[in-house]
């Protein structure tokens, strides 16, 4: 095989790209990995003492994702600023339908966790400092062309264009970078006609480590336990679905007015809403790519699929896909094959497809079923929620989807090289 600058080029060093780089460093340490990231990296970006902010953005991590980070040796550090979800309460506002999930019923400490995005990034960066992964930052990938030994990737670094050669390019820079479209991948986007408003809130009553999924006539909302210093047990991460008109109204209100409007929609299960932090918002859509791989290039994370956030499945689905890709790269590298071969990337896509199709159906059906206001539909979904609460088999299925253990479980072998425990099939059940 001809010599190249690197073996794998990862476009994007965010949560998806950095996790992929770390997993490869752990699983395939002889594979040369280069990450191209637009944001500069410096010692100041990795403070020794991390202080969570009230307005910190967060991500819901399913139990299956915790197992993956544990296998990568990252969980002991990451868990320092991760709030466990021990109960999930799903309800239909103004109606009797509801279902409840409890970690103890599945013999686990938690169903999932809520972790600060910045903290996860810091943990990944610190772990990557002790690996051979190379970083080109600030830099960006401009284009990719097939080359004699794989791919030729054009990057811009410090205002100058350069060519990196490698076996494969992985696009991990999100769904709105434009690189995916520039490379000719065709996306399918179905807009929900709604927006997600994201903020942290404080309540007078403790969340008791409960995540609430509340479906209302104007759209679903989620409140996830997300503790911060000084307010243990009383802070939650809010995901509030609003149409354009309602979003404009909420944004025009004072913080007190926003808390009152939230109180009206959610109710009093957490007592009074006493504080709401900085509000972020973005339009909601289901975006998929029919063929996320081709010879020499693969899409991962939000570049390959973007879901409605209310079910909290997006990053967890991406993480399982990354581990499936690592598995295929490891097999190819051990066999002396190029990791950019279409057969290698096609195997990744084939193994991951069932998982993402199942997850997309689960998330999308929740939004569509609970978005209907017709009385006959409302009565049917109330019966469905009650049925989930009463029928053990149905409830276990629902729990597996929520915990991210319903799809295919990729294996991290680590080959006992680092002494870290692998995640074997059969132990990721719920």
UniProtKB/TrEMBL annotation:
Can you name this protein? Answer: 2-octaprenyl-6-methoxyphenyl hydroxylase
> So which cofactors does this thing need?
FAD
Which pathway does UniProt place it in?
A: Cofactor biosynthesis; ubiquinone biosynthesis
Entry EC number(s): 1.14.13.-
Can the keyword Flavoprotein be found in this entry's annotation? Answer: yes
Which keywords are on file for this protein?
A: FAD, Flavoprotein, Monooxygenase, Oxidoreductase
Q: Which residues form the FAD-binding domain?
A: 5-362
Which is one GO molecular function term here?
A: oxidoreductase activity
Q: Look up and give the organism this protein is from.
A: Marinobacter koreensis
InterPro entries, sorted: FAD-bd, FAD/NAD-bd_sf, UbiH/COQ6, UbiH/COQ6_monooxygenase
